[in-house]
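Predict structure. Chain length: 690.
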Amino acid sequence: MELKDTSGITLRVGERKVKVKRAVLSENSKYFQALFTGQYSDSKKEELDLTKDIGDIKDLRLLLQFIKDDTVEITNVNIKKVLQLSTFFVIDKLIEKCGKFMKDTLNVSNCLGYYFLAKEHTIKKVEAVTSLMLENRMHDLLIYEDEIKQLKAEEVQHLIEKDFLRFCTKDSVRDFVFKWLDNVDVLDQTHLDVVSATVKYFEEMENVRKCPLETDCPKAGKNLEDILKKHTELGEEMREKFQRVLHGLTVEENKSAEAGEGSESPEGENVLAVFTFSNRKYIKRVSTQRTTRNSSRSKQKEVLFDICVYNTNTKCWYKIETCKMDTYYSRINYKGTIRSIVRAFPPHIYCTMNIAGDYVLLQDDEFDPTKLVIYDMKNDKWSSTKLLALIAEYVEPGTKILDRCTVYWNDSTFIILKLYAKCELRQLPIFASGMLFYCFQICPLADGKLRLLEIFRTDLVPCQLGFLANETLGTMVGTSSVSNEMLILDNTLADLDLAYVVDLTPLKDGTAAGRLLDFKCILDSEHDEDETESIFEHLSVEILEREDRFLVFCSTFGEEVQVKFEYLYKSQRLETVANGLKVKLPVDGKEDGFHSRDRSSRCDFKGSNWMIVEMDEYSSSCKKVTVQESSGDIVVEQHTPPPFMNVISISAKHVSKDFFSKWTPVKNFLESPSEKKVGKSKVKRETSSV
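Prediction complete.
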């Protein structure tokens, strides 16, 4: 049995001394364990001078307090010192607690400092999450955070090499460089090398110049000549080198993108816009730790939701509207109070967003799926209505909505409703109950209301409501701007598969106004009794538009999706594809490829997926994902990250170029109401009792 050394040792910092048992130090610090068991000059000393290593007796007492009872007060003021000491003395448990504190208090303002701390002390988890935040919010730091002016030359060089400037504009980087140089006491060759690397980076990354995120950001305050005059230590040769290199950052950029012009859109005057409805719950600019139970309740009451839009041409985000939770719930006639919502559910809204003209349509997915909450972008008004009220003139009383799906075609917005209704059978003068599909065009009216114009309805499929499963795959719809066709796929999970094709050409040439379009059922297959799987009974089905056909991707529980069916335009036949194209899914569960089972974070547009991907609740990304039909390879195009963490719903639609002139560009994270009240200057210390 190993005997513990119960003798004491005196630790001295300056003139102050503390006596501690050797065994206690050895159990908690690998440094002292190695010292006391090794054959070093200090191993047998009764007094150990730590003045050079610690410097302040308060820091020593902090370490000893943690060693004694496993508690320590970590703040954003002392975190750097605590990490230095815990790393030097190899106190793993304290390093772990410092990492937890950094993750708990991580925000845009401190992520840069935390990143370099974690990198220096090899705290991999913190380094990973701060790296994600820097990748997506570096433009925030360049403009709004003074901390970045304190960076060392090698740290700025590291940020460039890690490609953290990918979403920053040339203007914002130039202003940062000027502020950074102005803050340096003595300029030398290392600073010139960093500036040269920055200029070279922008020369190689031409696409960065097309991201006008910060159109009116605060300027550096001093021009290049003022900064160079301040540094009298520079010789004439070095001064000329700085002027020559910095000229690459001072050349005026093409401002056409900031004006909303950008590159030419393939749709002429139209621009593809990605609309989002998001929750500010997870957004942090400054740390706002909860101090009392009452304060946390007040924050929950103030949960905000934002409607934003992304210009895919200029790569700029805009904020359209902000609403509180009760603005939404009061319009779906939720009977409880906002406090009861917060207690029973997370402060969240579950809905599907679509755009029709100047209206944002939020279809509730939680309490009342038949309800539409409407925001009028033109008149800045909120309203609501029921889908059944809008279609009352077309259906019999007692009709139930089983499923709904909204799609865009040309400049029109269509809603396809799967109904259980009672209606007259075609060619027979009798009424029966069953399932059918209605397609309506959503028509905004001048008085701020909506009208649904019937486009077509399918034949009734007689059945009993009880035979329709409550949990269905959902109705999938695809439209083609090439063939002007609509493809509808549905599986009721009640032994029936349905597929319809609709010719939309009469709508395009204007001959179908006020009358039904013709449709054709291209599949009507009943399952055999001994079959275990329906033709569309998969975990997910995707309809992708191609130049000459629709491809139908299906997946089950595997790590890939595969083309199971195809529809050649105008063929009116849905064909089974043997050994169809396979697309590999991400294996780590991040779901950031072509396929994602969470439809709230993505939308389809002309064969591509637009996705907002939340990463570890610290940052999010915006990407366009396309599948190459020949190889099945996934092509990911990164876009400007959104100004929020998590998205509730997303929708893509063409809009006119001048649409974006109405809205305010979003140049940084959308702040939570509690952060606005506290303010960055008032958050002086973060305390974690661990």
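Summary: The longest helix spans residues 124-144.
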